[in-house]
UniProtKB/TrEMBL annotation:
This is Integrase. The keyword DNA-binding applies. It comes from Marinomonas fungiae. GO terms for biological process: DNA integration; DNA recombination. It holds the Pfam family Arm-DNA-bind_3.
Length: 418
């Protein structure tokens, strides 16, 4: 087949009335279109199958330039390489430091694989990036990993220390996959070097402990915050997960009928559920709606933040501060809780389950109140699954909790900060 000439190419480009390809030999084609610019294309076969590589547009790329580019790609093929694969590698953004490595890991893996990728992102941003974020990947040593972990251990956050170590190991494994380093600087560390082996979490508050804790909340309401106070009340009577309540929106609530429709996007199970609200919860939500001042969120952020709602650490930080623990500060606040054993927001959810059991509520109903899928049971749960039984369960628990947490005080309507 005769090769193309520059005059022919010019003529084909000028008179194109349909999509057509003209061969120059050796897989090189001049492609014209009814609309759009003509272009050069190389057709070849590699281990990846039949491929078509666009070389450039005409007239920006001349016939001679297209032949030269085609020859370069043919040489790559003779060397056992795929030109399109090489081009893809060359277009990958250069990853130089640890922060750029995390951005790539987040975009290419975490955001696709995890339902809540913001959890490792938050750990990296708060715990890892301040220490090693700007370091070149190959410059990170085990001593840097130890520094990250020691900072967290000094603030008495063993769970976060263990999570941080896990994410650092995964992050540098990602770097090894990308051929950015040969070694994982976090590989030799174990949980003993981080937060230690965590004991089984079975903390539940007794009625006496609930009353005492909320009396301390009440005494220090100006620093603890009324919003935080009401959130803790709601965890005790609803048993929902922290993110489900802290990120709740008013459009999910119908306070007239007393139903909270939690959408599947915010449910850990990925299934929507309608939560029946006891009368006490409706009253607390009504107060929160006034305090929200028109915000679409039940718990709007009270301080400057990139989040429009209460942060994931806000409540636990506020509770820990009353126990004399404030991460990141050398001088710790006084312990206002006395000898009361430390507890977290999740322990309030666990306490709801304990109260439900003590009040004779059936286990399967209590588990559905927690939005757990029942073990050993097949089938798809309806959002109204066990709805009437759950309504009775929440009301029964709320009737017990109400006198333990309700304290009248003159600053009841002061806005508390998050």
């Amino acid at each position: 087949m005769a090769k193309l000439t520059a005059t022919q190419v010019q003529s084909y480009a000028r008179t194109a009335t349909a999509n057509k390809k003209y061969s120059d030999g050796n897989g090189l084609y001049f492609c014209v279109r009814k609309s759009g610019m003509p272009y050069w294309m190389l057709r070849y076969t590699s281990l990846n199958g039949r491929r078509e590589a666009t070389l450039g547009q005409y007239p920006s790329m001349t016939l001679a330039e297209a032949r030269l580019e085609s020859s370069k790609m043919q040489l790559q093929l003779q060397q056992g390489e795929d030109p399109l694969a090489i081009r893809a590698i060359e277009t990958i953004p250069e990853i130089q430091n640890v922060s750029q490595l995390f951005q790539d890991w987040y975009a290419k893996d975490l955001s696709r694989r995890l339902k809540h990728p913001n959890i490792p992102k938050r750990v990296f941003t708060k715990e890892i990036a301040p220490v090693i974020g700007q370091l070149p990947i190959q410059a990170v040593r085990p001593t840097h990993v130890r520094e990250v972990l020691e900072r967290i251990r000094e603030s008495n956050r063993p769970t976060i220390a263990n999570d941080t170590l896990m994410y650092m190991k995964q992050l540098f494994r990602h770097a090894i996959k990308l051929d950015l380093t040969l070694n994982n600087p976090a590989a030799a560390f174990t949980v003993d070097d981080a937060g230690g082996v965590e004991s089984s979490k079975d903390r539940m508050l007794s009625k006496e402990e609930i009353h005492y804790a909320f009396s301390v909340f009440h005494t220090h309401i100006n620093s603890f915050g009324r919003d935080n106070y009401l959130a803790c009340c709601l965890f005790l009577v609803l048993g929902v997960r922290k993110s489900e309540l802290c990120e709740a929106m008013w459009r999910e609530m119908d306070l007239t009928t007393g139903v909270w429709d939690l959408p599947k996007e915010r449910s850990k199970t990925g299934v929507p559920i309608s939560i029946p609200l006891p009368r006490q919860a409706i009253a607390w939500f009504n107060e929160l709606q006034i305090r929200a001042c028109g915000s679409p969120y039940v718990f709007p952020a009270r301080r400057a933040s990139h989040r429009p709602h209460m942060g994931p650490d806000t409540l636990n930080r506020a509770i820990s501060k009353l126990f004399g623990r404030e991460p990141g500060r050398k001088k710790q606040p006084p312990n206002k809780m006395g000898k009361l054993e430390h507890f977290t927001v999740h322990d309030l959810r666990r306490t709801f389950r304990s109260l439900a059991a003590s009040l004779g509520i059936a286990g399967n109903v209590a588990e559905r109140c927690l939005n757990h899928k029942l073990k050993g049971v097949e089938g798809i749960y309806d959002r109204h699954d066990y709805f009437e039984e759950r309504r009775i369960a929440h009301q029964t628990v709320a009737d017990v909790v109400e006198p333990l947490v309700n304290f009248e005080h003159p600053s009841q309507h002061n806005t508390g900060g998050h």
